[in-house]
Each structure stands twice: as structure tokens, then as C-alpha cells.
Amino acid sequence: MFWPTLLDLLESTVRVSPPLIFAALAGLYSERSGIFDIGLEGKMLSAAFAGGAVAAVAHSAYLGLAAAILVSVALALVHAYASITQRGNQIVSGVAINFIASGATVILGQAWFDQGGRTPQLDAASRFSTIAFPFAADVGKVPVIGPIYDHIISGHFVLTYVAFLMVPFTWWVLYRTRFGLRLRAVGENPGAVDTAGISVAWLRYRAVMCDGVLCGFAGAYLSMAMTSGFVKDMTAGRGYIALAALIFAKWRPVQVMFACLLFGFLDALGIRMQGNALPFIGQVPGQLIQALPYILTVVLLAGFIGKAIPPRAGGQPYVKER
Amino acid sequence: MSTPYGKLPPSAEYFLLPLVNVVVAFLISGLVVLIAGESPLRAFELLIKGSLGYGEGIGYTLYYATNFIFTGLAVAVAFHCGLFNIGGEGQAYLGGLGVALPCLWLDRFVPWYVTFPLAVAGSAAFGALWALIPGYLQARRGSHVVITTIMFNFIASSLMVYLLVHVLKPVGAMAPQTRSFEAGGQLPTLGFLLRLLGLDPGIAPFNVSFLVALVACFFVWLIVWRTKFGYELRTLGQSAKAARYAGIHEARIIILTMMISGALAGMMALNNVMGEQFSLQLDFVNGAGFVGIAVALMGRSHPVGIIPAAILFGILYQGGAEIAFDMPNISRDMIVVIQGLVILFAGALENMFRPALASAFASFGARASRRATAAGE
User: Fold this and answer.
1) What ipTM does this complex have?
2) Taking the C-alpha atoms of A277, A283, A285 and A288 in order, what is their torsion angle to the nearest 10 degrees?
3) How far is B373 from chain A (nearest CA, A)?
4) Going by fewer Cβ within 10 Å, which terminus of chain B is more open, N or C?
5) Would you call B151 and A297 a contact, using CB atoms and an 8 Å cutoff?
6) Would you give the DSSP letter of residue B189?
7) Same domain, residue pair B174 and B277
8) Helix (H) or strand (E) holding A251
9) Is the domain of B293 the same as that of B335?
10) Residue B2, pLDDT score
11) Does one domain contain both B273 and B127?
12) Cβ contacts of residue A38 below 8 Å, gap of 6+?
């Protein structure tokens, strides 16, 4: 009884984690370069809408994905323009993007599709389907290892694998490329980067665009893989959970993945636990499990489990000495 | 070092520039209406008629404005200290608990004016308490108040769902809400004020908490601009280094400011819980905490600016409902878009039009002085 339940839980953890991983890594690029991004939620939501809408009209998942990325990058550029070029308050700008996305997706969805703010249900051809790995069904019969291979490793969406591959890729970009070194430097000490003759603004613009691309993936996963079609407010706070995961992981890529898996697991557990009692502990209110990622992050931020120190230049617009 | 932007005359700084920003936000909103296939002019007409065209509409407009005055003040007080309190939503939600408890306790025995002071104190205390923790964490443990207040919004939401479903719901009831308050838990309306002007307030829940909001405006002005504490608060907001050098107790100011901010947000609950619903309901705050951000930015964080900004958003909320009735494509989500655009243009992009405006004023000034010298010769 325990083993199948756990397997089930882990399988749904892998299902719900990719948007968190995409979004948290998106935030990582931006915040490591010194641009706070509260707008993950809004970008993800508008990407989910654009993906769902275009995929429904064009009957192509990949065109949908492209639209999702395009819209998300456009919003990221608004954020970049406000916070880099105009030196505005980055948090205010992020909050604004969240509101614009939350309202505009519903208004446009209603005007274009007339289904109460939803986009039309996607058919199998215009959404992402799951891939079964070779011999999954055969290996699945082997005890212990079999089900792990069959349920947890095999049988997910292309985007799921992209999300998990994005983790080592981001690590490589951040720690093994020139761009990554400069990106980390500009988040800690933009003055030094500027002195070295590198444009602070252009570097940060690129970082924020990376953020936009990844949020596009996150949104596309929500409306075109996890479900088939956009629904009003379908991100449901995932952008903030991703932000929490990013802080929880102290702005490091591999730890981001584990934080997202942990929060994804809590999400899966919360759904599973509705009305069920836990062994040994008894009935735990679902609301407590829902709030747990936020509580954990606050406890971490309070410095009780190590200290989360954000990039030093985060949130401050860079002004050249004059 | 000079400031990156040219100086503007005060009239432009405090009136013209915010006005330009807000007008641009509304023009873009009009564009969204156009994309949605409706006429922006007709929408504007409906908006004004629905919110200001008749007594009941005005009553509702002022009812919504009451919410936004409270949450706008909450954000503004924190802004002056250099803090960004996004947690108004959660603080107001908890404030609702502070209103509901005295009402549930006393409503059957005493008239409303006995319950009311307790409810005011309760809402302020619960709101302040919910802001105290992020304030403390910012002041003492260096965790960013923006992040913690966001997290506290979600925690508040979970906590209140739990309390409403498992604790406060009457036995046997289906809806997750408290029982309805009796007369002792219901605030009287201010409909007679509208009647004095010859208007019919209808069933608008425009109530006594509007007066509390105005009093709160006065006290915020008093505290921020006319006390030693307010001076220290603003100093800290301008420059933390200068404040530290002047021997200002940084942690104390941050914690107190957050508590005042939370108390103001918490008092918003009076208007809804005791003034309209007469019970504590799920999600009654409904985004008003976030509207406060737009209101504070638009009102330049001053009570004198916040009142008209709050009334403007009241117009949007009430008139928006009327638009949604006549134009099925423009739901109330349009308000959220407008709110976002106002936050973007009056907040993050507030300096976008400054150089243009500054050079316009400079050339205007130069021309005037040239004319003056020419006349002098």
C-alpha cells in the first residue's frame, strides 16, 4: 500500500515541478544579474495564454511554444526597459506586469474565443504528448527499479525533460562561460564590470531576455502539456512559489531544482492528502501543506536554516558615475 | 554627482507629471478595449455614468474608495520609510478576523457604537501583527520585506481558509463564512449625506468607515510630517546611511512603520466585514490590498493625493461593473489591466516623461527670460 502511493506521489511530483523549475531558473538569470523579478507569475501566465491561443488556432504545439516565448520575452523587455533604461523600481515594475497579465489574458481570451476567458480545448495534435522510453512497459515489471523507470523517468512530456536538462545547462552557462561570469559579476558589482569595458545595460538586458524565454517555456508547459488549454489565472501562484524556491536555493541552479522538486512534492502531497490521514501524524489540514513552501521560505529568510544572501547589486539601478 | 534628471517646478513635479503618467496608462487601457472589439469612448461614458451618474452609483464608488484609502495609506506610509509593503492583502485579510471576533462576541447585546471601537482596535491590531513579523525580519534578520510580505499573503490566505472552514463556520452551515452579525455588528450607512445633496443612495453600503478613513488620512499626515518619529521615518527612507549617522534607531523605526502600515491595511476590513457583508467571508479583500499600491503611487504617497486616487479607483470598480453589464467582452478584469498600467506608468516608468517635460519647461523658461531681457532693453 505504501509503495504504490509513494510511486504515485513521485510521479505527480515530476509532473507538477517543470513549470516551477523553468520559472525559478528564469528568475535566477535575472536576479543573478541584479534585476529582481517579481513578475515571473505574470510572464508565465501570459505565455500560457499565448501558447494556448496560438496552438488552438494554428493546431501546432511548437508554434504555440514559439508564441509563448515571444510574448513572455516581450513582457520581460518591458521589465528590462523600466528597470534598466528608465532606472525605475524593479519591484513596482514586476507587480505591474503581474496585474497586466492577469487582466489582459482574460479580456483578450474572452474577446477572441468567447469561452469565459478560456482558450479552446486543444486536441492531441496541437499539444505536447508524453514520450515513453524504450522498453518502459517491459522493464516496468521488474520489481523496484522497473516502476521507477516506467513511471518516474519515462512517460513524461518533452518539456519535462527540457526543464530538467535546463538545470545542468544553466549551471554550465553560469559557471563555465564568459557570459555567465560576467552575469554573476554584474549582479554583485556592476561598477567593476563597467570598468572592464563591458556594457552593464546590454548584459542585464540579455539576462532578462533569458528570463523571458524560460518563463515562456513554463507557461507553455502549463497550457499545452500539463493541461490542454488556457484557463483564467491558471498559474495560481506558481510564479511566487518559484520565487520562493529560488530564494530557498540561494540563487544556485542545482539547488533550485531540488527546491522545486520539494515544493512540487508538497503540492502533490497536498492534493493527495485531501481527506486522508497521514500515518503516525494523523489528519493534517491541507491548508498547512499549501502554506508550507511559503513558511519554509520565510524561516529560511529569517536565517534559521543558513542564510540566504541575494546578489549584492540586486534591485538597484546602475548609474554611471558622472 | 547630480541627480540624473533635470529639476521640475513643483507644480509639474506633483501635478503635471503624475497626470501625464496616468493619462498614458488610460490611453493604453483604451487601446486594450479597442482590441477587445468595443468602443473606448462608449466604455468611458458607461464608466462615468455608472459610477457618478446616480446616487446609488456614487454610494458604491465611495464604498470602494474607502477600501482603497486604507490600503493606499498603508503602502504610502511604508514607502516613506523606503519599504515596499506588498502584504496589504494579507494584512487586510487578518484585519477581517480582528473585526469579526468582537462582532461575533458582542453583536447581540450592545449597539454598534460599542462594538465599533473594539472592531477598529481589533482590525488595526491584527493587521499590525501580521506586518510585525516581516518588519521584524527586515529590521533584525535582514530578510527583504517584499519577499516576506508576499509569502505572508499566501500564508494569511491558507490560515483564513483553515479558520473559516474548520473553526468559524457555524455548525451545519455549508458556506465557509461566519454567521451573519446582528444589529450590534452592523455599521450604519452614510446615505443621509447623499440625501442631503438630493441623491438617492439606494442600497449602497457607503458607511461610517469612510469617516474613519478620512481620520486615518489626517493621522497619517500628522505622524509622517509633524512628529519626530515621522521625521526619522522619512530620513530613513531618504538615506539609511544618513539616518544611522544621525543616531536614528533603524530597527525600531522599520518595525513601527510596518506595524502602522499593517494596521492601516487591517482597518480596511471594517468597511467590508462590518459595513457590507455583516459576516467574515472567504477572500473578501479581493485585491484591494494590491490596488493600494497603484493608489499610493498615483497619489504620490501623500494623503491629499491618495484620496482622489482612491476615488478614481472607486469609480473604476463601480463603473467597471456597469461596463461589464453592457459590454460582455469587458469584464471586471479590465480594472486589473488598468491598475497594472497605472502601476507601470506612475511607478516603474515615472521618469519616462520627465526629460521631455523638463526640457519643455527649460525652453519655455529660457524663452520667457529672453523675452524679459528683450523687453528690458
Assistant:
1) 0.89
2) -90
3) 33
4) C
5) yes
6) B
7) yes
8) none
9) no
10) 38
11) yes
12) A90, A91, A94, A95, A98, A243, B86, B146, B150
Residues A52, A38 contacting (CB under 8 angstroms):
no
Q: Give the per-residue pLDDT at B159.
A: 93
| Each residue's pLDDT tens digit, A76-100 | 999 999 999 988 889 889 989 999 9
Ramachandran region, residue B291 (left: φ > 0; alpha: ψ -120 to 50; beta: rest): alpha
Residue B93 is placed in which grid cell?
485579510
Q: What is the pTM of this model?
A: 0.88
Give the long-range contacts of residues A275-281, CB within 8 A, separation 24 or more: none
Cβ contacts of B131 on chain A, cutoff 8 Å: none
Domains detected in chain A:
2-127+135-301 (1.10.3470)
Same domain, B160 and B72: yes
Residues B58 and B347: their CA atoms lie apart, in Å, by 28
Lowest mean pLDDT among A58-67, A284-293, B163-172: A284-293
Radius of gyration of chain B (CA): 22
Q: B263 with B356, same domain?
A: no
Domain of B34, in residue numbers = 1-38+327-362
* Consecutive H or E run containing A157: strand A156-157
Instruction: Give the closest-approach CA distance of B237 to chain A in angstroms.
Output: 14
**Chain A contacts of B290, Cβ < 8 Å?**
95, 99
Asked if B347's CB is within 8 angstroms of A96's CB, the reply is yes
How far does A221 lie from chain B, in Å, by closest CA? Answer: 24
B304 and B159, same structural domain? yes
Residue among B35, B341, B348 minimizing CB distance to A108 = B35
The amino acid at residue B228 is K
Q: Which of residues 85-124 of A touch B (CB under 8 A)?
A: 86-93, 95-104, 106-108, 110-111, 117
Domain count within chain B: 2
- 3-class DSSP state for residue B249? coil
Tell me the mean pLDDT in the region B349-373: 79
CA–CA separation, B39 vs B31, rounded Å? 9
